[in-house]
Structure formats: structure tokens, C-alpha cells
């Protein structure tokens, strides 16, 4: 299970190296989520999930407010949520989630990022079946036993509960994301180091030094694309 947290940790570390890019991506994601329903996280679950994630990346309130106000206004920008799947070196698998207002541009850019870095884009369903959609929530300064007791008292089911990287990681079904957070908040836990709806590989692969370097270059190229929101993979 430790490999699961590493995937999230690596993604956060990579994103933290370029905060302006992270903030821009969150601004767009918040805008799109707010447009799905009421621009109020209490009545719009999609928006609430994005805002919980944004907190763990320290996205400034000004960026959040700007995106929500834009959704409240007369903006007619329409974005599509599209998922691409592909392969990297030595059997590595990649899922790329995007938000785009130009499907042709995004498809071309994602395909180029794969092909120019030793990978290739697959068809829909070629990779996703090897990943599980998962709610991942990390809590610091608590023990596994303490978190387990809180979850049991609230009758909230989770997949797994482990101590990883000096914190307790809760892995649950995506539908349980809010239930897990709400019962923890009711117990006085209001800060989360991780609050992600992510895709976790069922099996991981280890690459050679050369293969890892090529894979990292491919993932960097994908994450640098303006339309790409998330990149998931099965590499250790």
C-alpha cells in the first residue's frame, strides 16, 4: 500500500515545483466544477471536492474566489472533461485527465507528449481497467488506532487504513470521500495533508534507470500541457 501514497506524494512534489502552473490548473478546475451546479460547495459536491484538494496545495483564496465569481458571472466558456490513456517504456501505464475548450488541440498535444518521449497513446479502456478510482485522505499527528476508532464510531467503511510517510492514510471508495472527511471533522480533525480523488494502479512496475529517465521526461511533458489536470501511472 505504501506505493499508493508515493504516487500521490511524487505528484504533489512535482506540482509544488511550479506553483503558478498548479494555481492556474486549480482555477480552471474550480470554475468548471462551479459551473456544474450552484457555485456553493455546500450544495455542489464536485466543487467541494476540488476545494478540499485545493487546501492541501495551499491555493490562495483570491484564486478560488476569482474562479467561483467567474462561474457566477456571464462567462460562456465551455470545457470538456476528457481522459486519455497510454503506455510508456517497459509496460508502464498512464492515465491523463484533461479539461479543454479545444478537443483537437488537446488530443494532438497529449499524443505528441507520448510519442516524442518513448510512449504511445492507447484507445479508451486500454489502461483504466488496471487502476482503481480511490479517495485518499492523509492525516498527521494521529495514530491508526485513533482514526480507526473515529471511523468505526461513525460507521464509515474504508478500504484500508495505514501509517505512511509520518501520517495516517485512509483509502476509501470515491463515494465515501465526504463521509470520511465529515466524520473526521466532527472529531475535531480539520486539516488534511492529502485530500485526493485519485486513480491507483492495481500493480506497479519498476523501470531501469534509463527507462525511468525516459518515463519521467514523458510525464513532465504531459503535466506541462495547459489542458492536463492530472496524470496517474503505475511506476514505482
What would you say this structure looks like, in words?
The chain is an alpha+beta fold and 236 residues long. The protein has 8 helices and 8 strands. The protein has helices spanning 2-16, 19-36, 45-56, 61-72, 103-115, 144-153, 177-186, 209-223, and strands at residues 80-87, 93-100, 120-121, 131-139, 160-164, 167-172, 194-201, 228-233. The strands form 2 sheets. A 4-stranded antiparallel beta sheet has the order 3-1-2-8. It has a 4-stranded antiparallel beta sheet with strand order 5-6-4-7, with helices on both faces.
Keywords:
Arc Repressor Mutant, subunit A, Alpha-Beta Plaits, alpha+beta, 236 residues, 3 domains, YebC-like, 4-stranded antiparallel β-sheet, single chain, 8 strands
Task: Briefly say what this structure is.
Belongs to the TACO1 family. With 236 residues, the chain is α+β, with helices and mostly antiparallel strands.
Amino acid at each position: 500500500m505504501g506505493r499508493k501514497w508515493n504516487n500521490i506524494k511524487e505528484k504533489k512534489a512535482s506540482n509544488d515545483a511550479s506553483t503558478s502552473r498548479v494555481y492556474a490548473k486549480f482555477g480552471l478546475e474550480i470554475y468548471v466544477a462551479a459551473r456544474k451546479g450552484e457555485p456553493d460547495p455546500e450544495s455542489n459536491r464536485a466543487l467541494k471536492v476540488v476545494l478540499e484538494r485545493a487546501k492541501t496545495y495551499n491555493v490562495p483564496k483570491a484564486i478560488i474566489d476569482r474562479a467561483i465569481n467567474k462561474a457566477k458571472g456571464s462567462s460562456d466558456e465551455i470545457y470538456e472533461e476528457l481522459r486519455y490513456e497510454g503506455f510508456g517504456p517497459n509496460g508502464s501505464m498512464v492515465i491523463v485527465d484533461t479539461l479543454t475548450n479545444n478537443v483537437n488541440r488537446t488530443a494532438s498535444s497529449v499524443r505528441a507528449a507520448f510519442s516524442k518521449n518513448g510512449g504511445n497513446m492507447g484507445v479508451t479502456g486500454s489502461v483504466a481497467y488496471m487502476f482503481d478510482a480511490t479517495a485518499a485522505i492523509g492525516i498527521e499527528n494521529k495514530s491508526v488506532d485513533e482514526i480507526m476508532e473515529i471511523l468505526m464510531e461513525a460507521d464509515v467503511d474504508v478500504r484500508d487504513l495505514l501509517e505512511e510517510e509520518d501520517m495516517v492514510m485512509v483509502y476509501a471508495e470515491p463515494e465515501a470521500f465526504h463521509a470520511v472527511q465529515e466524520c473526521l471533522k466532527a472529531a475535531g480533525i480539520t486539516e488534511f495533508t492529502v485530500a485526493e480523488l485519485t486513480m491507483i494502479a492495481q500493480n506497479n512496475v519498476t523501470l531501469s534507470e534509463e527507462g525511468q529517465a525516459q518515463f519521467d521526461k514523458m510525464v513532465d511533458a504531459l503535466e506541462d500541457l495547459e489542458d492536463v489536470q492530472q496524470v496517474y501511472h503505475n511506476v514505482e
